[in-house]
Design a protein that fits this description.
- With 415 residues, the protein is an alpha+beta fold.
- It folds into two domains: 146 residues; 212 residues, 3-Layer(aba) Sandwich (Rossmann fold), CATH 3.40.50.
- It is built from ten helices and 26 strands.
- Strands 4, 7, 8, 9, 13, 16 and 17 form a seven-stranded antiparallel sheet that branches. Strands 1, 5, 11, 12 and 19 form a five-stranded antiparallel sheet that branches.
- Helix 6 runs parallel beside helix 7.
- This is Secreted protein.
- InterPro entries: GDSL_Rv0518-like, SGNH_hydro, SGNH_hydro_sf.
- Keywords: Signal.
Length: 415
């Protein structure tokens, strides 16, 4: 079974988490400060491995997340969006990370759910923890530790973590360090971190694919372009939330459900001021490749129709929407087990889509990532200094250039 067929029956199970300010603290508000969009795990017949154990039992999972804006209280969101069975969390804790699997013990807080120290997530559901007092600075790292006491199928995760997570036997959620732990670079179950802030904040959700998810960036260094943008904007009290999914598409399910299917859950439920869209290269590149060898090629008008749906749905919620042009991809993935991702006809579609993004005026603003990253002497390809080496994803320098090109006027309009 391919990933698309696997995900379609499960898409309807994804539910949104919404937050509201406590009535007793009207001067404060909850804001999303970090996110990882849930995906369904896939089978061994898919071209890429999950990198995640299929089952966990009597194990502690510790995940590190760098927030964008800070606050004095914190809570987390968990997701069993694609699970066919309940997921039981025996204990959950949050603390300030001090690097690797280490935490500051003085900051360690037990998380509860409806006043209880554990929680069971029914199939298809998210779950929000109770708030705890914890001063988290802007761009601070928190460590979330989950103990899974029962035999648990891992069916909901985020694949492209770009950050080490730690897996150890037994309930070690309170340990200051998980010595001798195994490491993963995926994110099972953890989907969000929220802070309560008394400061006026604005937020941007970036809806994207592997380029937004940070593929080929240096792990554990926060070199994804949304991370670099968050680093620049945090001092302005602007939250940046990454809703990228590697393999993501506008129209079709792939390594996650389509943008059209997950727009409410991953974007609108977070109540952002702005959504930034960098999506479409997989809609173009996947058909006819090793990912989807039998799918019919996409046309520019079909992809544009998908963008128009995102624009209409954002505007119906009063959300500004910024579009980005699609980056070059000639010769993509030459050394990967994925073949036929690029051809000249596919690039003609990309060029037509980019012309529409630039010239139609339908997005509220446009950032021309194609112009920034392409080689002026060979515009179908990345500038060599920005190429990770796979001719599809930027390297760290390319991600830095992309983040630097996004300014507040594009995100929020002129003052």
């Amino acid at each position: 079974m391919n990933a698309s067929a696997l995900l379609k029956p499960l898409a309807a199970a994804a539910l949104a988490v919404t937050l509201s300010a406590p009535a007793s603290a009207a001067d404060k508000h909850w804001v999303g400060t970090w996110s990882a969009s849930p995906q369904a795990t896939w089978g061994t017949d898919f071209v890429l491995p999950t990198g995640t154990p299929p089952r966990l039992r009597d194990q502690t999972l510790r995940q590190v997340a760098r927030v964008s804006v800070g606050g004095g209280r914190v809570r987390i969101a968990l997701s069993n969006a694609y699970g066919a069975q309940p997921v039981t969390i025996g204990a959950a804790r949050i603390a300030l990370s001090t690097g690797g699997s280490r935490i500051d013990p003085a900051s360690d807080r037990l998380l509860s759910f409806g006043g209880q120290p554990g929680v069971t997530l029914p199939p298809g559901t998210p779950m929000l923890s109770d708030p705890v007092d914890l001063d988290v600075a802007a761009l601070g790292e928190v460590a979330v530790s989950l103990y899974l006491p029962r035999d648990t199928a891992v069916q909901t995760f985020h694949w492209e973590g770009r950050q080490d997570a730690y897996l150890a036997a037994g309930d070690r959620t309170a340990d200051a360090e998980l010595a001798r732990a195994d490491t993963l670079q995926t994110r099972p179950f953890l989907s969000g971190v929220y802070v309560e802030s008394a400061r006026p904040t604005r937020s941007v959700v970036i809806l994207g694919d592997s380029i937004t998810d940070g593929a080929a960036s240096t792990p554990n260094r926060y070199q994804r372009w949304p991370d670099l943008l968050a680093q620049r904007l945090a001092k302005r009290d602007i939250a940046v939330l990454n809703a990228g999914i590697s393999g993501g598409q506008v129209l079709n399910d792939g390594m996650g459900v389509s943008a059209l299917a997950r727009f409410e859950r991953d974007v609108l439920s977070l109540k952002p001021d702005t959504v930034f869209v960098l999506l479409g290269i997989n809609d173009i590149g996947w058909p006819g490749s090793s990912f989807e060898p039998t799918r019919e090629a996409i046309s520019a008008p079909r992809l544009i129709a998908g963008y128009r749906q995102l624009i209409a749905r954002a505007h119906s919620h009063g959300v500004r929407i910024v579009g980005a042009t699609l980056t070059p991809f000639e010769g993509a993935l030459p050394d990967a087990p994925i073949h036929d991702y690029y051809n000249a006809d596919k690039d003609k579609v990309r060029q037509a889509v980019n012309a529409w993004i630039r010239d139609s005026g339908e997005f509220d603003a446009v950032v021309d990532f194609d112009a920034i990253t392409r080689d002026p002497n060979h515009p179908q390809r990345f500038l060599p200094a920005y190429d990770s080496g796979d001719r599809l994803h930027p390297g760290d320098a390319g991600y830095r250039a992309m983040a630097a090109a996004v300014d507040e006027a594009a995100l929020f309009g002129p003052r």
